[in-house]
Sequence to fold (414 residues):
Amino acid sequence: MASSESGSGESSPIPYATPSPKITPQTTITSATGVPAHFRLEHDQLNLTLAALPPHRDSAEMRELYNATHDPTRGQFVNVGELPAGDGGWEWLEDVDRIHAVDVLGLADQEQVELMRQAGIFAMDTTVRAGPSTVWLPNMQLFNPVDEPDVEGHWEFHLTADRDQANINFAGQALYGLANDQHPSAAQIWRIRQVLIESNDLDATNGINLVWVPTNSEPPATIAPLEPNADVGHSTGQLDPNSGLRHAPTNRGENDQSGLPPAAYHTLDIRGTSFTLDRSRAHATVVQPHKRWIVTNKGVWQQWSGAKTLDWLSKTEVEKLNKWKEQALKRNGWPPKRWDPRPEYTDEEKAWLMGLVVEERRTGRTLSNEQVTLDFNARFPSRDVTGITAILHRLRKQLEKEIAAQEERDAPTS
Fold:
């Protein structure tokens, strides 16, 4: 990648350069060498036979979609070209990218795509050689946090570009105590950041993204297949979207997790026993003692260390409870809250969005993706802004094609 992202999210890491040469079939690639182990690149050799890749977007479309989606300040990184450090998850930029990667090329997942991009099989540009496009979504609680998290772990640079930017800004700088250090660590950059913030000096670490990596992090639980039309959700009696198990918050009388509305139940099988937790946020002044508990990956109930002295009237203390709970659940293998796969848009939803796109074209006023997301979620099942951004892009292109086709039909024949 190019230089590190700025705090404003305005810089673009993708060099829109001259198209690279056409992919050669029978290409063998290996994972990069000489990269720190924390970037998790100890992967087996990738031997892939690639046919010529058919274009599914032109360069202008890809650049437009990239600019609309890539936003480090919101934790959205498109086509990073490596495996980022720290906790997070992957999405495809559009459904066509999943089809391109999985169905056409037979690739396993987004990580494999980005390893191929790093090795030069897929390009860091907007041509057809860019291949399938991915979005990396870091865990924002551990991405440039204001305070060092209260769980055991260590600091890492988010991307190699962040490490390189730290070397450029701070290597050999006696002012920061690095006179004899040409490769400052992420922990050193974190300490420098705190000193600069406390002294109200210009933060020279701005744009260097750091992540806190908890010790002994474990991968999330495997998603279980669900029957079509299953009653899936997070209410009592529904099936958990991740495990497929039915929520039973009384937990056989062991630790009743029944919460006040809107409780959000998540259920997991741990060592042959089903456990249900209420993972809705705790709120100050609303006393719900059951929210002080989690279940570890050994099937043992664990209470927050600050439970006995918790002041339910203090927003600060209740927020500490919320923070501990989600971090502890991640360390113990519970899936993210929003692991649910993104469903297809219904005809009604697409018709409503197309109405906005038509109005946008008529008035010339550009839609705000964030505002459209808010309005959409007030009418239909909730979607995130990345999904809304992607479908608005597709609907705009669809409208342009329909208008062009109509104009061609209406054109006088000679």
Notes: The first helix runs from residue 59 to 69. The chain is about 30% helix and 10% strand. The radius of gyration is 24 Å. Residues 1-54, 217-226 have pLDDT under 50 and may be disordered.
